[in-house]
Amino acid sequence: MSSPVAARAGDRGLAVAGVLAVLVLAELIGRTGIAGVGWPPISEVALYLTESSAQQLLGRALAATGAAAAAGFLLGTVVALLVTALGALLPATAPGLDRLAAVLHAVPLIAVGPLLITIAGRDATPTLVAALASGFAVFIAATSALASTNPAQRDVFSVLGAGRLVTLLRLQLPAGVPLIVDGLTLAAPAAVLGAVIGEWFGARRGIGVLLVSSMQNLQVNQLWAAALTAAAVALLAYVVLVAARDVVNRRFS
Amino acid sequence: MPAQTSSTPAPAETATPTAISLQGIVKDFPLRRGTAVRALERLDLQIGHGEFVALLGPSGCGKSTVLRMVAGLEQPSEGEVAVEGRSPADLVRAHRLGVAFQEHALLPWASARDNVALPFRVAGRPVDRTRVDDLLALVGLTGFEDARPRQLSGGMRQRVAIARALALEPDVLLLDEPFGALDAVTRRRMNLELARIWMEQRITTLLVTHDVDEAVLLADRVVVMTGRPGRVRHVQQVDMPHPRGTEVTRDPDFHALVDRLTAMLDDPEPTAEPS
Predict the structure, then answer these.
(1) The pLDDT of residue A212 is above 70
(2) Extended beta strands in chain A, E state
(3) Smallest Cβ distance to B119: which of A158, A160, A253?
(4) Percentage of chain A surpassing pLDDT 70?
(5) Is residue B146 in a domain?
(6) Which chain B positions have a beta carbon within 8 Å of A160's beta carbon?
(7) Which of A170, A132, A47, A169 is nearest to B105 (CA)?
(8) Which of A152, A251, A253 sits opposite B105 (nearest CB)?
(9) Distance from first CA to last CA of chain A, Å, rounded?
(10) For the ABC transmembrane type-1 domain, which residue ranges apply (chain A) (predicted)?
């Protein structure tokens, strides 16, 4: 009984040790200065984060980025699911939709950004880039989720006289929920990074803006603080969705 | 052997209008580049209203393919399948078919009750809750209405699957090795259960199985198929009265019949026999 618990505690201990090792290494590199002025000791970045002005600055940036990422995540997910559903209901369109998604994904977000700025404006761009980044992950997960239903269940639905819509709503979607949530766990960090990239091209505020201005003004501590904040938020989004996935898996399998 | 193939009492068939009719069925499955394997070769089978027919054959003889064609899941390469005088697709559209497979194929996220109610929802009809609960009682699952499939044993899952197949009072019930994945003891118990359930419903039933005991215990007629390509080799009328309980399984006649049919399955049949 206690051995799996002990194993899990051991895993956790190893993970903590790993993170600590990375932090110590980063601190050492910063202290010795072997990576140049661009790499400050992590303790200095942490100290900078305790300043209230820094907290306000990062807080405002985080609020903007978080809002853009959340809106983009929602938009990307909804559009991806609608497109997937369209492919399931009109199978003739499915290969075309797959290719369209692949092409859209092949265009680098860095290249899409300036385009979106001119089309949708600087305020909408972070959200749209976040939607593009997360939507693709959801689309791929959802199309494979809908295709992965058990053949015997499909046969039962066929013999019961279920149409495509009923099969989609009563079989494919519920059966696909765990895989779709898997896609969401990948899409959430992608949305945060997409929002940051979108802000890069000239949003009014946000982590991306902060990154650009810190870089241009050689505010090394601020640059690192902003980068670490973005990473922490992406990680947090991932952790929250992994927890949600465990709940969902228990319900749908 | 050809004499035995025609041993079915033909007058009885004309007396009862056929519920399921397969005529001159040929089924080829395409393999690589133009080659094909012939699964069924000119198979004829008529099933009367309210008749329970078991299709018995060695594995790979195409018996499941026969059932899948009646269910509209496969199309014959040649020949004609009619259920109640219509194409299987028509019956499927009218939600008049019930089916249970070896794999229970229940929805894991739904309770036993919701699984049995599924055919109502698929057909877009209001769920008849009394009917659903009556069916669960019929298959002996009162008290397990809210259990999810993974909380049920293998035998219980198959009971749910059979209750689901019966939900809309189908014209035809199709059972493809429904107890094939169960252990021998559970399987025997489920056979006796099915015999009882069937007595109460009297639905035209096609059962596909490789278990001779099961076929003889349940069916009015046992149709033995040849190995691939599958054809009807022998039709055996089983005249023991329904419902058949444990006492039948101790009857020497039952065992003699089982032995005869088993021998027929074991015997490598001259498949090249002209028909």
Answers:
(1) yes
(2) none
(3) A160
(4) 98
(5) no
(6) 92, 95, 97, 99, 118-119, 122-123
(7) A170
(8) A152
(9) 24
(10) 58-245
Most confident by average pLDDT, B77-81, B139-143, B205-209:
B205-209
The residue type found at B210 is H
One-letter amino acid at A109 equals L
pLDDT of residue B270: 52
Q: Do B122 and A158 touch (CB under 8 A)?
A: no
Q: Which residue has the tokens 């505690």?
A: A9
- Is B178 part of any domain? no
Q: List the domain range (segments joined by +) for residue B213.
A: 16-96+209-275
A174 contacts in chain B (CB < 8 Å) = 107, 109
| CATH (domain of B21) | 3.40.50.300
Q: pLDDT digit string (tens) for B91-133?
A: 899 898 999 998 889 999 999 999 999 999 999 999 999 999 9
| Within a domain: B256 | yes
Q: Is A139 exposed, middle or buried (0-12, 13-18, 19+ CB in 10 A)?
A: buried
Residues of A in contact with B107 (CB under 8 A): 153, 170-171, 174-175
Mean per-residue pLDDT, B24-42: 84
Q: How confident is the model at residue B269 (pLDDT cuts 50, 70, 90)?
A: low
- Residues B143-166 have a mean pLDDT of 91
Answer yes or no: is B115 within a domain. Answer: no
* Predicted-complex ipTM score: 0.84
- Total residue length of chain A: 253
**CA distance to partner chain B, nearest, from residue A177 (Å):** 11
Please judge whether A161 and B73 are an interchain contact, meaning their C-beta atoms are less than 8 angstroms apart: no
- Distance CA(B224)–CA(B210), nearest Å, equals 10
Give the number of domains in chain B.
1
